[in-house]
Design brief:
The complex is a heterodimer of chains A (293) and B (258).
Chain A (H helix, E strand, L loop, with lengths): L1 E10 L2 E10 L4 E5 L6 H8 L7 E6 L10 H4 E4 L11 H12 L3 H11 L3 H4 L8 H13 L5 E4 L8 H16 L3 E6 L2 H5 L4 E6 L2 E6 L1 H5 L4 E5 L2 H10 L5 E2 L4 E4 L3 H10 L4 E6 L4 H8 L7
Parallel strand pairs in A: 3-7, 3-8, 5-6, 6-7
Antiparallel strand pairs in A: 1-2, 1-4, 8-9, 10-12, 10-13, 11-12
Chain B lengths: L18 H13 L2 H23 L8 H29 L3 H7 L3 H33 L12 H26 L2 H21 L4 H7 L1 H6 L8 H28 L4
Classes of the chains: A alpha/beta (293), B mainly alpha (258).
The complex binds adenosine-5'-triphosphate and magnesium ion.
Magnesium ion binds next to α1 of chain A.
Chain lengths: 293, 258
């Protein structure tokens, strides 16, 4: 399990502020935010590369830098372009394999998984396309057969087949009990695989929920045979519904919450749907870019 | 907080990478790129060229093993510290620091492995120098009856030591500046400028004896070692090698890596 606790790091005015969230085992957490929101900074704090001003980030309760052999526990991919251009792909993997004390068989296995062929890995990484670097970097992360994956923008530079391949890989990985934390500034990239979305904007977490909950974040639109009975029941449950005429009621709650209230009050519903069920729209609203979009 | 590993696919059994393996990896990194290999090959080629040149140039036969070793080692003093500098600074210029320090987050261990690799490279280069110089000495024409091999064991051991110290000097500048071009320029100019200053200003002669690397370290290759000359070499090494390495390492441990 990955846990961020009140992580704060300032670079002058910007940085990250009071970042707290958890990534449970067996799940894929999508860490979303626009450019400069603080995703990479948070992930670097987690991997011990940036010391936070305050707060802590841990893996199973232990700071990354305190893990005896972190690469066997946590697979990390922070920047696929940060590779020595004069080293071959194979040499890059072998160096890491030696640190991790895994054999050539594991190197071959990983190359197979990430789909880099023999000709490619014998070439200098400087000649690689972005997608190939991304595959090599993912291979580096997988080398130690870790139970936790931390990936910064892994889909960057992958073609549609590549993105689908990576989704399948990460989904299976999480289904086997692995913990995945991946960042992206594009919602559609993670929407399909994430069980959990954490949205960051200008250094602060603005949402931490399941995709379903986020979809309901725009509220629910509901129609009942007896609108006033429904309104009364919702008010009694602590919600603030508004009647929009024509028997339509809007309320800031999920469809499930409204359905439960209605069921408990034996109110017959004729329509129940989330408002703003377009997750992308929700994302834009959360990150304050809805007005300009 | 209690931690359950059972739910995870990989139990936390792995041990830290031993320093010896990290050192081997750093040595491999110094030689697995074309530029690294080229630099080492150029160092060796220049050493051979200088040794042969010193032995064969001119007809006069006043060569000794000491004088030829002295000439040969200049090639290594010139180029090898650059290898040491790049051992550190390439991590930043090629951005591999991100991977290196993610795999080994205890940064002091990475620095220790790099310094150990620098010592190994210095040792190997020093041995090449004394061997090449010995071969060149036997090729050179000698004055009959002169003791060409005078104090050769002293010369050999001292030279290897000084090559290692110069290698560490460069590596220390690399650590201090983490910028290849800057460290290389400082490495070539600062010790030399200091040496010229303390040699020519009479009031600074004490500084020359104690904190000038070219004077203090060179005495290690001479036949008459005393407690004072050893002390002077140690003081010079502390100022020029230990201090930059200590400051550079302390700063590296605190820095953000990105
Ligand atoms: N070393 C640094 N020095 C100064 N400012 C920094 C540094 N690193 C990050 N920042 C600033 O912190 C903020 C967060 O940056 P970060 O790289 O974490 O964003 P991000 O969410 O990863 O963005 P992107 O999607 O573009 O990768 C930005 O405003 C950035 O300019
Ligand atoms: Mg980023």
């Amino acid at each position: 399990m990955i846990q961020f606790r009140h992580v704060t790091k300032s670079f002058g005015a910007v940085g990250v502020r009071d970042v707290s969230f958890i990534c449970p085992p067996g799940t894929v957490t999508g860490f979303l935010g626009p450019n400069g929101a603080g995703k990479s900074t948070s992930l670097r704090v987690l991997c011990g590369l940036i010391r936070p001003d305050s707060g802590s980030a841990t893996i199973d309760g232990v700071a990354y830098a305190q893990l005896p052999q972190p690469g066997r526990r946590v697979g990390v991919m922070l920047d696929a372009t940060a590779m020595h251009p004069g080293r071959t792909g194979r040499e890059t993997l072998i160096l890491a394999a030696q640190v991790l004390d895994v054999g050539d068989a594991r190197v071959a296995q990983v190359l197979d998984v990430v789909g880099l062929d023999r000709a490619a890995i014998g070439r200098h990484a400087g000649t690689y396309s972005l997608g190939m670097r991304q595959r090599l970097a993912l291979g580096l992360a997988l080398l130690g057969d870790p139970g936790v994956l931390v990936l910064d923008e892994p889909a960057n530079g992958l073609d549609p087949q590549g993105i689908r391949w990576m989704r399948t890989l990460l989904r299976e990985y999480a289904d086997r009990g692995g913990t995945v934390l991946l960042s992206s500034h594009l919602l559609p990239e993670v929407e399909a695989i994430a069980d959990h979305l954490v949205v960051i904007d200008q250094g602060t977490i603005v949402a931490d929920a399941t995709p379903q909950e986020l979809q309901g974040a725009g509220g629910t639109s509901v129609r009942a045979l007896d609108p006033s009975a429904l309104t009364a029941a919702l008010v009694a449950s602590g919600y603030q519904p508004t009647e929009a005429g024509n028997g339509l009621v809007r309320v800031q709650a999920t469809t499930e919450q409204v359905g439960r209230v209605a069921a408990a009050a034996s109110v017959v519903l004729t329509e129940l749907r989330p408002i703003g069920h377009d997750l992308e729209q929700v994302f834009f609203e959360l990150t304050g870019h809805g007005a300009s979009a | 907080m209690t931690t359950l590993y059972a739910a995870d696919p990989t139990p936390m059994v792995a041990r830290p990478t031993p320093l010896r393996r990290l050192t081997r990896i750093e040595l491999r990194k110094a030689t697995d790129t074309r530029s690294g290999r080229l630099l080492l090959a150029a160092t060796a080629a220049l050493a051979v060229a200088i040794a042969l040149g010193a032995a064969l140039a001119g007809k006069r036969s006043g060569h000794t093993y000491a004088s030829i070793t002295d000439a040969t080692s200049t090639a290594v003093f010139l180029l090898l510290p650059v290898v040491g500098i790049l051992l550190i600074t390439a991590e930043w210029s090629q951005r591999t620091a991100l991977t290196t320090f993610t795999l080994v987050p205890r940064r002091g261990r990475v620095v220790a492995a790099k310094l150990a690799a620098a010592v190994v490279l210095g040792l190997l280069a020093g041995v090449v120098v004394i061997a090449v110089a010995a071969a060149a000495t036997s090729l050179a024409s000698h004055q009959p009856g002169s003791d060409v091999w005078h104090a050769s064991a002293h010369v050999a051991v001292g030279t290897v030591l000084v090559v290692i110290l110069n290698m560490l000097l460069g590596t220390g500048f690399g650590l201090l500046f983490r910028n290849g071009p800057l460290a290389i320029v400082i490495n070539f100019t600062l010790p030399t400028a200091w040496s010229i200053l303390v040699t020519n200003v009479h009031a600074l002669h004490a500084a020359r004896d104690w904190v000038d690397t070219s004077t203090a370290w060179h005495r290690l290759t001479e036949a008459h070692l005393s407690a004072t000359t050893i002390g002077q070499a140690i003081v010079a090494a502390s100022v020029w090698v230990a201090v930059p390495i200590a400051i550079g390492t302390a700063r590296l441990r605190r820095r953000s890596i990105s």
